[in-house]
Design a protein that fits this description.
The protein has 2 domains: 237 residues, Rhopdopsin 7-helix transmembrane proteins, CATH 1.20.1070; 76 residues, Winged helix-like DNA-binding domain superfamily/Winged helix DNA-binding domain (Arc Repressor Mutant, subunit A), CATH 1.10.10. The longest helix is centred in the first third of the chain and has 33 residues. The chain is built from 13 helices and no strands. Helix 1 packs parallel to helix 7. By secondary structure, the protein is an all-alpha fold.
Length: 321
């Protein structure tokens, strides 16, 4: 009975996590919004880490123990299982950070990205050295590595989720739409609570075996509620975005054909209609400010208009062909 219960306790969070992936994928398909895609990859990468490194290592240990395999082999298998899942956890946290930045229509600074992944790779290499020294050369203690691993994981998780929450609070201060402000702050608070509960469970794992199951349940199942919040927000603010976008693309295609608009000019028009400045268009398309101005001038000459408002209205009034 105890063994059956243990299997059930492992299966429930795995199934719940898979359901969270399914619903986040449906949201990504339904809404053409960049931060939704980033959130989907966050959930996927986190699930891979949780299923492979956390639940998977526990299952391996249970099976190997039943098969009466040498304790050294069991420890090695568990360490390598966790080791191979670490990159997915690092990627998942980065995708959550990216999701929040995209929500506020900000770009992640290149220096931050380089620093984040450089430190992560360095930590990954150091951990690999410790694991190889223990498993191959029997240098070091298994329990010591597990303890270091646990506290490094705690420190990294607390730091990154706190940074994300602070970013949400600071970036949402000047928001005029109270519903959007409340949504993103509740979303951030929910993941702050997720961090607190997960880290508390990790600290309490040595006290009782059932705590590890509680931790895995929280780690994999927690995202179902934020996905519900996200769905409500998207329905309110982006409910018609896909159909409107499709209609706009159709009209833009007709407009481009009628006025002999080039591919690059069409890309500029798309960004103009999104309200981007010339400098922002240049950054998005990796071209100079002067080149953007040249493209815009040629578009105005071809269409016989004088400003952006006229351009937008002309596209909207374009007939489908």
């Amino acid at each position: 009975m105890a063994e059956s219960l243990r299997i059930i306790l492992l299966l429930i969070p795995l199934i719940a996590g898979a359901i969270a992936i399914f619903f986040s994928f449906q949201l990504m398909k339904r809404y053409d919004v960049s931060f939704v895609s980033s959130y989907f990859y966050y959930v996927v990468f986190l699930y891979i880490f949780g299923a492979y490194s956390l639940a998977g290592s526990g299952i391996l240990e249970h099976l190997f123990t039943r098969m009466e395999i040498e304790l050294k082999v069991i420890h090695s298998a568990r360490l390598f299982s966790i080791f191979l899942g670490i990159p997915f956890f690092v990627l998942s946290v980065f995708m959550l950070f990216r999701c929040v930045m995209e929500f506020f229509e900000k770009k992640i600074h290149l220096l931050f990205t380089i620093t984040y992944f450089s430190i992560s790779v360095l930590a990954f290499i150091l951990y690999a050295i410790f694991v190889v020294r223990l498993t191959r050369f029997e240098v070091g203690e298994y329990q010591l590595i597990i303890t270091i691993q646990r506290w490094v994981f705690l420190g990294f998780t607390v730091m990154m989720y706190m940074v994300i929450f602070i970013l949400i609070i600071l970036s949402s201060r000047k928001m005029s739409d109270h519903y959007v402000k409340r949504f993103i702050r509740v979303f951030g608070a929910w993941y702050l609570l997720y961090m607190v509960l997960s880290c508390s469970a990790i600290i309490l794992i040595p006290l009782h075996a059932v705590v590890s199951h509680i931790f895995i349940f929280i780690f994999l199942s927690w995202h179902l509620i934020p996905i519900l919040f996200l769905n409500l927000y998207l329905e309110k603010y982006h409910g018609q975005s896909s159909s409107l976008q499709e209609d706009f693309e159709t009209k833009l295609a007709s407009f481009s054909e009628e006025f002999e608009i080039s591919k690059r000019e069409r890309e500029v028009i798309q960004l103009i209609c999104k309200g981007l400045t010339n400098q922002e268009i240049g950054d998005a398309l990796f071209i100079s400010l002067q080149t953007v101005k040249d493209h815009t001038h040629r578009i105005f000459v071809k269409t016989g208009i004088k400003n952006r408002v006229q351009l937008t209205n002309l596209i909207r009034s374009s007939k489908h062909r």
